[in-house]
Every structure is written in C-alpha cells, then in structure tokens.
C-alpha cells in the first residue's frame, strides 16, 4: 500500500467513526473539506498566496492545487474536563503527494491543556489579525510532531481579584531530517503577565525558541537539555557552546496594551526579536522591533479588522564581528597575559596590568572598528544548523525572511558565501491589512506590504570574522519589494456550510514580478 493510499484509508476510517461519536452525550463533531488552486505568472508564487497557511503550499512551485479534508471531535467528559482530537489530510500538486497535515489529541482541565501529535504552536497573538504573522513561532510552516503543555488563556493570579493575570506554555518538538543537520530537536516556550488597572490593559511577555541535538559534519551534536533550556554554556557540547550558550537560540520580547471600548478593542504591541545575550539586553541599543496597531470591531460591519505594522530587523546587535578574531577566535577571558597579547599583536605597551574590560576595549578598537563584539547576529540563522528556523523551505516565523531557494528561483546566478540557508533576515517593512463585510453573505480582505531588504550579515561579510565586504553583495544599499493581495468570500444562506472565494495578488520590485489568483471552495461536512 502506497503512502497516499494509507493516508486515504486513515481518513476514511475516521470519517466512518465520526457519525458514531457524534451521537454520544457531550460530544461535538465538526468536519470540512476544501479544494483550492493558485495560478500565477512569476518566478515565485505571490507571497500572500502561500504564506501563513501552515506550509500547505509549495512556495517555489508554479501553478498548483490543494485538496484538504479534516475533522475535529470534542468530548466534554465532566465539568472542567474536555478531551479532543483532530485529523487533517492534504493532497498537494505542488508537493505531488498526500500528507497527514495534522493529527493530535488533547486533554484540557479548566485552563490547562496537554496536547500531543502534529499540531501548531502559535501563542504570540491571542486572536488572529491581518498582520504579517508572528515573527517567531506562527502559522507559516507545516505542523510538526510535538508535545505542548500550556495555560493558553490569561488566568487570574490568586488574591489579585483579576488585576494580574498570566498565561504561558512549553512545547517540545521533533524536526526530522533537517537539511545538513539530521534529526533536530526544537524546544519552545512563552510566558506573559497582564495587569488590568482600567480600560487600558498592559501586558509583557518573553518567547523563546531553541534548536539542539542533530548532527554537524556527520557527527552527532551532544544534547545538554538544561543549559539549552536556560541559554547557558555547556562544556558537554564544547567549543563555542561552552563559552556562549548550548544550542541555537531565538527570542522575542512582546510588550503591549489593550483598550476595550464600546464598539471594539484596540491592541498596540511592540515586539523585540533577539538571538543572543547582546540582543536580549534591548535597553543597551537593540533597535529591532515589530510595532503593530490592531483594531477589532465587535459588530460585523464594512470594516471588521484593521492591522498596521512597522518592522525593522536590520540592526541585529550591530555590524561588529561576533567575537575577536586574529588567526582564530579569541575568548578574552581565556587570555592569561593580556599585556603581552596587545604588545605582540598591536604594538601597544600599557603602563599597568590590563583589566578584562580594558583588554576588550583595545580589541574592539584595533580589530572591530570601535564596535562592540557580539554583532552580526543572524536572526533565524545559526552556523551549527544551516537550515536555521525553516522547515521544508518555509520560515518558522515571519515570511518576510527569505531562504536561499527562494532567491535562487529569481536569480539562478546568485553566489552564496556561507552555508546558512536563510539569505534575507535583515529588512524594514510597512504593512497594512484589513477585513470587512460587503453584505451579510460577502466579506472582503486585503494586504499591502512594502519591504526594503538587506540580506544577511553572513553573506555581506564572508566568513563573518572580517571587515572585507563581498564586492558583489547583491543587497548592498537595500532591495525593495511589494507584496499585495485582495479577495472576497461568499457564504450563501441557501447552502449551509458552503463558502467560495477568490483572491488576486500582485508582487513587484527588485526581487520579482508575479501576478496571480487563487480560488477556493470549502464545505462544512457536519
């Protein structure tokens, strides 16, 4: 039996059992199927035709189609206790195969939940919006096997009378067969605090994602879980991981305020991505951010949701070298005779024994053009894990980051200097998205995004430990690109469960030009 036949059998078995489950007390069952297709005339599909859709579409393919079918079963076993399970099957012409897209089971007790199987981990936004998606985590890649324990909804802290609330969770995932890295482990977690002094609710949170394990140069990378969990150094792994932190790390602060009004609610958020200790100390000059304003109206009107975002990821702790380098990486703490070192290498003869800070200052001035070390972070990238935070060609976060495969599709002659495979992680962007209703049965949506792209430090400074820029660096000065979409959806009253829509797209700029359309028909089975 082929893989597609096995998947079809599993789906038919589930569809056979669902009507029986639906008849049980406290059981809720829903299911739907859909068919959609994308046609376009560019080197790449228009961005918003494939992005933020759980990796279902091949973002390198030409015109393609997709058929999906799935079901969810909920059982309210007792007050406060709920059991649930879901399964989705896709057939994609872009990937030329049928796949189990998701399949999970979940136990919920009051506000707590434990979920296992192939499922999403998308905790940053508590409600959907028309933005560019979460910069970290999110819905831009296919669900992977994971176990997640979380308190997903804000829950009042005892004895605060609802003034202070928390939510958080931890998820352990498995990324099987990552390019050049084998079977990589993915550890993710988040924690938020919200206070409610009045109409304005203030919140702050920290999100953390870590790659660890896997292979490098054909050898297994040792696993040291707790140093990886806390972002500490590991002598078990050794090398740079002993001095810096075990594993590869991405994090994001998330601060915001929510205003409740009589007609809706407004959320203003300021998110700060980082990849190491220097970027984590945002008060010391980390200017990278996602500034968003998200407005939702309670009543269904011509404008239901409006989202604006201003994004900058160009700083990445500055363009100074990550560490001192003279014929090899230097770790200042490990240099015993600092005075002899600076005299031998720079001809400087201090008149007193150098402190560690004075030694660092001399190194920064002599070999780092006066910049702090710890720069050129490389968001979503890591030298130990070449695929970085990507899965099957899709970024595991904001789709405005671009992979080497996407760039080669538009410029086959492009030469790369470094093995990391996310080749555009430095950009500035403005984005506007909105949804609304034309009538009771017709809704509309739109997105317009402008980005100026600067590639990645990995390519700008070949080898990273040099101040000699690539003379042919394609992103020098920035490359502009526009991504646009508009669409309508129709839900006829006379056919319960049916919806049909069409979206139009146009992308243009220094990357590529692509005009396309997507049609989709969805039917709720039960």
Overall shape:
globular
Task: Please state the structural category.
Answer: mainly beta
Please count the helical segments: 9
Radius of gyration: 25 Å
Helix fraction bin: 10-25%
Mean pLDDT: 90
Distance separating the two termini? 30 Å
Number of strands: 24
Tell me about the largest β-sheet: 18 strands, antiparallel, barrel
Q: Which regions have little confidence, pLDDT < 50, spanning 5+ residues?
A: 1-5, 7-13
Strand content: 35-45%
Key descriptive features of the protein:
526 residues, 9 helices, 18-stranded antiparallel barrel, mainly beta, disordered N terminus, two-stranded antiparallel ribbon, globular
SSE inventory with pairings:
Elements: H1 3-22, E1 27-40, H2 47-50, E2 64-78, E3 81-92, E4 97-109, E5 112-119, E6 144-156, E7 164-178, E8 182-195, E9 200-213, E10 215-216, E11 219-220, H3 225-230, H4 240-243, E12 248-260, E13 264-274, H5 277-280, E14 289-297, E15 305-312, H6 338-346, H7 356-367, E16 390-391, E17 394-395, E18 402-403, H8 404-410, E19 422-424, E20 427-437, E21 442-453, H9 457-460, E22 479-490, E23 498-509, E24 514-524
Antiparallel strand pairs: 1-2, 1-24, 2-3, 3-4, 4-5, 5-6, 6-7, 7-8, 8-9, 9-12, 10-11, 12-13, 13-14, 14-15, 15-20, 16-17, 18-19, 20-21, 21-22, 22-23, 23-24
Task: Report what the structure shows.
With 526 residues, the chain is mainly β. It has a domain at 325-372. The protein has helices at residues 3-22, 47-50, 225-230, 240-243, 277-280, 338-346, 356-367, 404-410, 457-460, and strands at residues 27-40, 64-78, 81-92, 97-109, 112-119, 144-156, 164-178, 182-195, 200-213, 215-216, 219-220, 248-260, 264-274, 289-297, 305-312, 390-391, 394-395, 402-403, 422-424, 427-437, 442-453, 479-490, 498-509, 514-524. The strands form four sheets. The chain has an 18-stranded antiparallel β-barrel. The protein has a two-stranded antiparallel sheet with strand order 10-11.
């Amino acid at each position: 039996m082929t893989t597609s036949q096995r998947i079809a059998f599993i789906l038919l078995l589930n569809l056979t059992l669902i009507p029986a489950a639906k008849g049980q007390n406290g059981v809720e069952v829903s299911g739907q199927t859909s068919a959609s297709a994308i046609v376009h005339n560019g080197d790449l599909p228009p961005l918003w035709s494939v992005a933020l859709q759980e990796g279902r579409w091949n973002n390198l393919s030409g015109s393609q189609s997709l058929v999906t079918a799935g079901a969810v079963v909920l059982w309210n076993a007792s007050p406060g206790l709920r059991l649930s399970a879901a399964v989705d099957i896709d057939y994609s012409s872009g990937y030329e195969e049928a796949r189990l897209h998701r399949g999970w089971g979940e136990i919920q007790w009051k506000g707590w939940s434990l979920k296992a199987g192939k499922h999403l981990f998308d905790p940053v936004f508590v409600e959907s919006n028309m933005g560019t998606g979460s910069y970290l985590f999110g819905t831009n890649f296919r669900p992977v096997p994971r176990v997640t324990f979380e308190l997903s909804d804000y829950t009042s802290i005892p004895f605060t009378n609802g003034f202070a609330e928390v939510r958080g969770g931890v998820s352990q995932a498995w990324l099987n067969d990552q390019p050049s890295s084998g079977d990589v482990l993915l550890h993710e977690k988040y924690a938020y605090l919200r206070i409610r002094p009045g109409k304005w609710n203030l919140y702050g949170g920290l999100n953390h994602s870590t790659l660890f394990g896997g292979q490098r140069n054909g050898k297994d990378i040792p696993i040291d879980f707790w140093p990886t969990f806390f972002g500490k150094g590991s002598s078990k792994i050794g090398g740079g991981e002993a001095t810096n932190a075990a594993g590869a790390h991405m994090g994001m602060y998330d601060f915001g305020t929510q205003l409740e009004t009589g007609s809706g609610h407004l959320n203003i958020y300021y998110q700060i991505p980082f990849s190491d200790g220097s970027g984590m100390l945002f008060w010391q000059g980390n200017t990278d951010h996602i500034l968003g304003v998200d407005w939702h109206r309670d009543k269904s009107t011509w404008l239901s949701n409006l989202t604006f975002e201003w994004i900058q990821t160009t700083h990445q702790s500055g363009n100074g070298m990550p560490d001192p380098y003279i014929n090899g990486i230097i770790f200042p703490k490990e240099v015993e005779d600092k005075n002899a070192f600076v005299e031998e290498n720079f001809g400087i003869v201090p008149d007193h024994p150098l402190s560690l800070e004075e030694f660092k200052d001399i190194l920064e001035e002599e070999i780092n053009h006066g910049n702090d070390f710890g720069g050129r972070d490389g968001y979503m990238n890591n030298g130990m894990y070449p695929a970085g935070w990507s899965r099957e060609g899709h970024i595991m976060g904001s789709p405005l980051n671009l992979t080497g495969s996407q760039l080669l599709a538009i410029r086959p002659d492009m030469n790369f200097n470094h093995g990391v495979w996310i080749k555009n992680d430095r950009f500035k962007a403005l984005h506007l998205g909105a949804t609304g209703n034309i009538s009771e049965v017709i809704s509309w949506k739109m997105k317009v995004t402008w980005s100026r792209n600067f590639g990645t430090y990995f390519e700008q400074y070949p080898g990273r430990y040099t101040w000699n820029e690539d003379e042919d660096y394609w992103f020098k000065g920035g490359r502009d690109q526009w991504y646009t979409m508009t669409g309508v959806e129709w839900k006829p009253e006379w056919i319960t469960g049916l919806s049909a829509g069409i979206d139009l797209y146009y992308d243009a700029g220094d990357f590529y030009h692509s005009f396309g359309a997507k049609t989709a028909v969805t039917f709720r089975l039960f």
